[in-house]
Amino acid sequence: MAPSTKVLDGGWGWAIVVASFMTQLLAYGSPQSMGVLYPEWLHAFQEGKGMTAWVGSLVAGVGLIASPVCSACVDNFGARPVTIFSGVMVAGGLMLSAFAPNVQFLIFSYGIVVGLGCGLVYAATLTITCQYFDKRRGLALGIVTTGTSVGAFIYATAQNELIVLYGLDGCLLIIGAVALNIMACAGFMRPLNMPGYYLKQKAALERNTEEQLFEKPPLDDLRITTGSSATSPEKTLMVKELLITMDAKDLAIQTEKKKGSFLSGLAIMKVIKKKQQAYSKYMHSIYEILQDQAMVAFCIAVFLFSLGAFPPVLFIEDVAQSQGLIEEVSVIPLVSIGAIATCVGKLVLGMLVDIRWINSIYLYAFTMFAGGVSLLLIPITKSYVGLQILSVILGFFSGNWSLTSYITTKIVGLDRLTQAHGILMFFGGFGIMLGPPVVGWFFDWTQSYDLAFYFSGGCVVLGAVILSLLTLPCWNRKHSENDRPDVHYTSNCDKVASVA
């Protein structure tokens, strides 16, 4: 069912924004402030920085790498059930980490279990927010994604105090218990569009009812449209609906109604053929998304930004301690300073991107360039105040994560947002997963962070250059004859966001 314009940009949508904000705060609070836990784990398990860094890289990267799967779960089951399940995963993983005997166990409990739960939360909150907002989508996404930054700011200080009072294990148990409130936030996520799983169950129930009253019509005549309880042969199925209406019940019904092994075999082959056609169309849609030059450039830029900009979140406290700028984590850690700057950045960038004459892709490229320059300045900074200033600058421009869904929607359209965003987050997660271990290995090799941060800053600046070059208007003019007719641009600047 197509969302009515009356329910967009207001009403219950703001309740969705608040619930999604709190969900991201509770889920990402601890992972985003892992810079406080990292020195404690180094001291407790006496492992190398590269090995211990896998915990932080996996908790941030696994969920994003699994974004296509997480997005498929949201498509089929809806945001509410997925968020409830993710609450169990996040809380369970945090509590399980309190009993970790070594870093390898932490990699599973904290890195993989909590990381997958965060990935489900991210996909669910962003998808349902995009469904409820149109004109104010940039602002809404900016508010929702600030939940991770506010959570990092609060949890960095809270975890520091809880470790002093109750130890590392007690800290993990308490924040795990707090994370159970994610399930309460899920109750507010009223679906605007009927999820695929319920459409499938509804179609099966209708078929069973028709069998009791009338003769069941041929399977080829059934066409289920989103949000409609009637069958309409005139309307065609979308890719998602093709995947959800064909299930094992179709096979059971066909084999029951057909008498004889020959007819049953034909029914089986018919169902298998329809399944193959549905998945072929799904894979073709993924292929079409990756044919878009702007989308490919954006994926490369997000990968390089994630590879270079995420390690400071994990290592910045250890950088200050290893250089002798501070003996222990301060009352307001550098992680908290960067987190609150990221919160401000997400809100400001979210408002800027809603201005018609501002090109969202070029704005993202500028934030990457500025963040890369600040990374290159970290090795030559020899004072704690300088690190605080760079943390503010890097944190502010790291708020460009709030633009990813907005830019993806501009490039591929709202209908393909879930699939395209899953692909984009796969690239981002891969970069985040590789970044911290690479920086840790650089330190284990050179006993200094200088070379590591030069590498990180160079990656981010390179990503900004690639994104800017591959989305120049000249590319758009060359391929103007292939522009999609279903995408309507509001200005010339918006055309740069899709080079078809």
Structural overview:
With 500 residues, this protein is mostly helical. 74% of the residues lie in helices and 0% in strands. It has 22 helices and no strands. It has helices spanning 12-32, 34-45, 49-65, 67-77, 79-97, 103-132, 137-178, 182-186, 196-213, 239-245, 248-257, 261-290, 293-309, 311-322, 334-352, 360-377, 384-397, 404-412, 417-446, 450-470, 473-478, 492-495. Helix 18 crosses helix 19. The radius of gyration is 24 Å and the shape is globular. Residues 1-5, 221-237 and 480-500 have low confidence and may be disordered.
Overview in brief:
The protein is mainly α and 500 residues long. The chain contains 22 helices and no strands.
Characteristics:
500 residues, mainly alpha, globular, disordered N terminus, disordered C terminus
SSE layout and pairings?
Layout: H1 12-32, H2 34-45, H3 49-65, H4 67-77, H5 79-97, H6 103-132, H7 137-178, H8 182-186, H9 196-213, H10 239-245, H11 248-257, H12 261-290, H13 293-309, H14 311-322, H15 334-352, H16 360-377, H17 384-397, H18 404-412, H19 417-446, H20 450-470, H21 473-478, H22 492-495
In whole angstroms, the N-to-C terminal distance is 27 Å
Which sequence of SSEs, written as H and E, runs from N to C?
A: HHHHHHHHHHHHHHHHHHHHHH
Largest sheet: none
What ranges have pLDDT less than 50 throughout 5 or more consecutive residues?
A: 1-5, 221-237, 480-500
Please identify the structural class as seen in this structure: mainly alpha
Shape: globular
Count of alpha and pi helical runs:
22
Number of strands: 0
Mean residue pLDDT: 77
Percentage of β-strand residues? under 5%
Helix share bin: over 70%
Rounded to an integer in angstroms, the radius of gyration calculated over CA atoms is 24 Å
